[in-house]
Amino acid sequence: MKDLRPETEAELAEIVRDTGEPLRIRGGGTRPIGVPVNGAPLTTAGLSGIDLYEPGALTMVARAGTPLAEIEEALAAEGQRLAFEPMDHRRLLGSEGKPTIGGVFAANVSGPRRIQCGAARDFLLGVRFVDGRGEVIRNGGRVMKNVTGYDLVKLMAGSYGTLGILTEVALKVLPKTQVTGSLNCVGLTDEQAIAALCRALGSPYEVTGTAHMQAGPDGTPRTVIRIEGTEASVAYRAAELRKLLAAIGEFSIDTDPESTKDTWRAIRDVQPFHDGEGDIWRLSVKPTDAPGLVARIDGAEALYDWGGGLIWLRVPKGKSASDIRHAVNETGGHATLIRGTRGGGVFQPLSPPVAALQDGLRKRFDPKGLLNPGLMAQAAEANE
Q1: Residue ranges, the chain, pLDDT below 70
Q2: Checking DSSP bridges between strand 40-43 and strand 23-26, what pairing results, if any?
Q3: Is 76 helix (H, G, I), strand (E, B) or coil?
C-alpha cells in the first residue's frame, strides 16, 4: 500500500478528518519498534524544512518530517548541537530510511548525555500536531521562558503518535563544547564498573557520559567516562577523576576528537549488538541493581549506559519475555523489547491506575482510535 504523504498541515488534518480507517504513522521509518502492523501507512516526510533558527537565542523551529541530518548540519554550521544526542537505530534494528526530528521527539530518543542535560523532552519548547479528530493543536512556544497552558509538549514526547501526529516542533539547542575527554579502563567486572561510574556521577566534576561495555572493540570489558569543556577544565577534571577512581581501576584519558566521537557514537547506537543474532531489550533500573539483574538472566550480554541506569541487553533469540520481565520487576525497573520475538508484548505492563489514565488520554485525543492502533494493542497485550 502506498504511503499517504501530506505536504502541509492542513492536508494532514483533512486526511485524518475524512478517513474511516486506522492510520499507521511513521516519520523516517527507522524505528519499527512499536509501529503497528494494521492501518493505512501515513508518513510525515512531506512536512519538512526548518522554519526558524535563531542561534543567538539557542532555538529552532522545524517541521516534523525534517531529516535529523539536516537539523544537525544547520546546527554544526553555527557551532551548536542537539545536546541530548539522539541515537541512530538503523544498524541495531536493520532498518532503513532517514531519522526525522519529529520521530526523535515522538519516541523521546535520548543518548548518553541524558544523565547530565536531560532527555529529548526536556529540550522541546513547543509543538503543533493534528489529533485523532483532525484538529490542529498548538501548545508551548518558541522561547525557553514560555510555560503557558497545559503541558502537552511533554505529553507528546514519547507518545509514539498515539495522541496526535506531530507537524512542527520548537526546540532548544546548545553550543558545542571545545574539548571532549574520555577516561577509559579495561578489564573491570560489571560490579566494579558500576561502582566507578556511580562514584564519578556523584563527584563535582560534571561528568556527561558513563558507560560500561562487557565486550569493547577488542572483546575485553571497557569502562568509559566522558567529560567536556575547555582544554584546561577537561585536563583538571580528568586528573581528579583518575585519583578518585584509582582504588577501583587505572583510567587513561583520551582527548582525540575522532577517537572520542567514535567511542560515544558506538555507545549511543549500541554498536556491540549491531551484528549477530539475539533479542534486544532496553531495561531501566536503579544503577546499583544492574549487575545483579544481568547476572540472573541466562545467556545475557549487556551494555550499561547512564551509570548503569540503562541496560541494553542481548539474549538468545526467542528467550521467554516473562523471565526477563520477572527479573526486572523484582528490581522495580521496567523493560521494553526493542528487537525480537514479541509474543510477550513490547512494553512494560502498566499498573491498573496508570493504564486507566493512559486509556483516558488516548480516548480524549483520539476518540475514534485512528492513530497507531496497533501500538495500543501491543501495550494492551503487555497488560493482559
Answers
A1: 1, 32-37, 141-150, 341-344, 376-384
A2: parallel
A3: helix
Count of CA atoms in the C-beta half-sphere (13 A) of 372: 24
pLDDT digits (tens, 9 = 90+) for 144-174: 444 444 578 999 999 999 999 999 999 999 9
Residues in the chain: 384
pLDDT per residue as tens digits for the range 182-200: 999 999 999 999 999 999 9
Give the whole-angstrom CA distance, residue 100 versus residue 117: 21
Residue 157's alpha-carbon distances to 54, 104, 119, 304, 330, in angstroms, are 23, 9, 10, 24, 28
| Ordered DSSP codes for 57-105 | GTEEEEETTSBHHHHHHHHHHTTEE-TT-----HHHHT--S--BHHHHH
DSSP conformational letter for 187: S
Cross-strand partners of 41: 24
Three-class SS of residue 91? Answer: helix
Is pTM beyond 0.90? Reply is yes
Cα–Cα distance, 144 to 171 (Å, whole number): 9
List the grid coordinates of 346.
Answer: 513490547
> What sign results for the dihedral spanned by CA atoms 161, 106, 337, 270?
positive
- In this structure, how many other beta carbons lie within 10 angstroms of the beta carbon of residue 371? 28
Element (H, E) at 130: strand 124-130
Tell which residue, 244, 301, 305, 251, has the closest CA to residue 276. 301
* Nine cell digits for residue 375: 501500538
The rounded distance, in Å, linking the Cα atoms of 192 and 214 is 12
